[in-house]
């Protein structure tokens, strides 16, 4: 090689993104996809109403409820948390049981994602990896969780898969009107399912610029216009969000203010926790509620052997999924995973948006593709062991999410039933944090004492002052506590109630505690009925 033709060590070879695996790429088969779709339908549709609605779902209900004098277009325009899902829910809650209709579109979307994901997998990885990836999604506890929640995350993941399929058409030079229209529609639907879909829009823009750059000038113009149209569609909701979120904090040097959610706004442990959540859901190891307890580190240490095995299987699979030599499929997947993750990380570090795995759930399908590819790429014995561990823990977690009340959503619905059966007419109910959920099930039968607009209880003195104000002029009260860390992170409220009278623990439905309080000599907290 002459000096004039020597390649700089900083410049990759010309074929560094060659599709080295292209001859092996293939769809997993219609019969297999049909069976996996049936398998996916069971955990997503079965028991869709089994658990109580929770706080975020009630926010959806309050924006679509009939008879409240709400205007459809106004509500859709003002809703930055999934205007597309809100529009669907608006129509459905007028046709049947609101509790079912809030969740049914998410369950259906979750089921439909599986065969479409199979089509995507067949275009990005080899046949064995594609089949394994589809199986991983069909039984994925994280995906099942959001397929039974009345928010937009199942829509988000569904349209992320469709958007990726449409992207591949553009990347292959298929730029007819129907291809461009499908891309604009699917990415827009992804963004309007949840604004975190914009993270994927940005990732796809980068991969199109650096991995799949169109060669012809006309093609580059068409692709650029397609990406620009998505931004135009999302603009009304972006402007709404800019007026709500402190987006100026992202600028270096700007003050970030008090952490949005205290110490849970972001911590380095959130990154491995997110990976574990993507693969095993929220029902492997400590529960969400336990992770907010003062002794959470002890609980994590106790579960560390299990979490270490689960994490090792995940990391090994991902590492082998990336492989030694990049190709276009790996490069795309890596960009589609890393860019949304880094955007959310930046927003969390600058206190614009707290970290939560669901805020980056748009990358779940691509993580599963890399994991499946890695399991197939491992040496046979190691791959079999790793796949067995990963699949076994996935099934275990899926079962625990159904059978172990520690992992259930807060059962405010049952709390309303308990209070209704035991309370005297006119008894007030103190319901911090989940007041809206309690109000939905109570239907206005009892006066509620809420904590809207109040600062978190910082200590015993603040708890005593709150009790004195909230219970002034009352001789008895019912107390329903759920998600206690949001208002009472130091667990001071029950002690303060015990100092102001007698507090008796009546029942503990999943994730909730129900107390009966009566004014009188301080008796502390009496456990039991």
Q: Which features does this protein show?
A:
about 525 residues, mainly alpha, six-stranded mixed sheet, 21 helices, 6 strands, about 55% helix, globular
Mind explaining what this structure looks like?
The protein is mainly alpha-helical. Among the domains are: 253-409, no CATH class; 412-526. The chain has helices at 30-45, 55-64, 72-78, 83-92, 98-124, 127-138, 141-147, 153-171, 177-193, 197-210, 217-242, 270-280, 296-302, 304-322, 328-349, 364-377, 380-403, 412-422, 435-442, 460-470, 493-499, and strands spanning 429-430, 448-449, 476-482, 501-507, 512-519, 524-526. Strands 2-1-3-5-4-6 form a six-stranded mixed β-sheet. The radius of gyration is 25 Å and the shape is globular. The protein starts with 29 loop residues before the first helix and ends with a strand. Residues 1-5 and 20-24 have low confidence and may be disordered.
Instruction: Name the average pLDDT.
Output: 92
Structural class, from secondary structure content? mainly alpha
Which radius of gyration do the C-alpha atoms yield?
A: 25 Å
Q: Per DSSP, what share of the residues sits in E-state strands of 2 or more residues? A: 5-15%
How far from one another are the termini? 87 Å
Shape: globular
Pick out the low-confidence regions. Answer: 1-5, 20-24
Number of strands: 6
Number of helices: 21
């Amino acid at each position: 090689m002459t000096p004039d033709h020597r390649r700089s060590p900083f410049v990759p070879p010309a074929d560094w993104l060659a599709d080295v695996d292209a001859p092996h790429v293939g769809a997993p088969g219609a019969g297999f996809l049909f069976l996996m779709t049936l398998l996916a339908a069971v955990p997503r549709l079965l028991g869709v109403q089994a658990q109580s609605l929770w706080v975020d779902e009630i926010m959806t209900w309050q924006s679509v409820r009939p008879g409240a004098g709400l205007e459809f277009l106004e509500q859709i325009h003002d809703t930055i948390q999934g205007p597309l899902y809100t529009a669907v829910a608006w129509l459905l809650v007028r046709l049947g049981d609101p509790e079912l209709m809030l969740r049914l579109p998410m369950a259906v979307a979750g089921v439909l994602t599986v065969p479409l994901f199979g089509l995507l997998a067949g275009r990005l990885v080899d046949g064995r990896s594609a089949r394994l990836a589809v199986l991983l999604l069909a039984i994925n506890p994280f995906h099942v969780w959001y397929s039974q929640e009345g928010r937009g995350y199942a829509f988000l993941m569904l349209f992320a898969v469709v958007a990726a399929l449409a992207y591949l058409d553009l990347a292959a030079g298929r730029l007819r009107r129907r291809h461009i229209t499908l891309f604009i529609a699917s990415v827009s639907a992804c963004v309007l399912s949840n604004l975190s879909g914009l993270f994927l829009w940005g990732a796809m823009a980068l991969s199109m610029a650096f991995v799949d750059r169109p060669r012809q000038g006309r093609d580059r113009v068409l692709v650029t216009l397609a990406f620009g149209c998505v931004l135009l569609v999302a603009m009304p909701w972006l402007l709404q969000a800019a007026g709500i979120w402190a987006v100026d904090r992202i600028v270096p040097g700007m003050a970030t203010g008090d952490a949005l959610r205290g110490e849970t706004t972001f911590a380095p442990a959130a990154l491995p926790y997110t990976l574990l959540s993507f693969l095993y859901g929220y029902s492997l190891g400590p529960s969400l509620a336990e992770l907010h307890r003062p002794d959470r580190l002890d609980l994590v240490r106790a579960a560390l052997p299990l979490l270490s095995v689960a994490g090792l299987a995940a990391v090994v699979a991902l590492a082998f999924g990336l492989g030694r030599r990049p190709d276009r499929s790996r490069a795309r997947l890596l960009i589609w995973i890393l860019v949304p993750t880094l955007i959310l990380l930046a927003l969390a570090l600058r206190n614009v948006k707290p970290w939560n795995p669901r805020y980056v759930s748009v990358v779940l399908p691509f993580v599963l593709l890399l994991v499946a590819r890695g399991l197939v790429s491992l040496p046979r014995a190691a791959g079999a062991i790793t796949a067995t561990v990963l699949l076994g823990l996935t099934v275990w977690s899926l079962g625990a999410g159904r059978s172990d009340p520690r992992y259930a959503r807060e059962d405010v619905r049952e709390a309303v039933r308990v209070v209704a059966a035991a309370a005297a007419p006119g008894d007030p109910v103190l319901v911090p944090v989940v007041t809206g959920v309690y109000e939905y099930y109570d239907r206005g039968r009892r006066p509620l004492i809420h904590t809207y607009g109040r600062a978190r209880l910082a200590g015993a003195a603040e708890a005593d002052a709150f009790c004195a104000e909230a219970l002034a002029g009352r001789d008895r009260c019912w107390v329903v506590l759920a998600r206690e860390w949001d208002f009472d992170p130091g667990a001071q409220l029950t002690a303060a109630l015990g100092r102001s009278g007698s507090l008796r623990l009546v029942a503990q439905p999943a994730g909730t505690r129900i107390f009966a309080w009566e004014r009188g000599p301080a008796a502390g907290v009496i456990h039991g009925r």
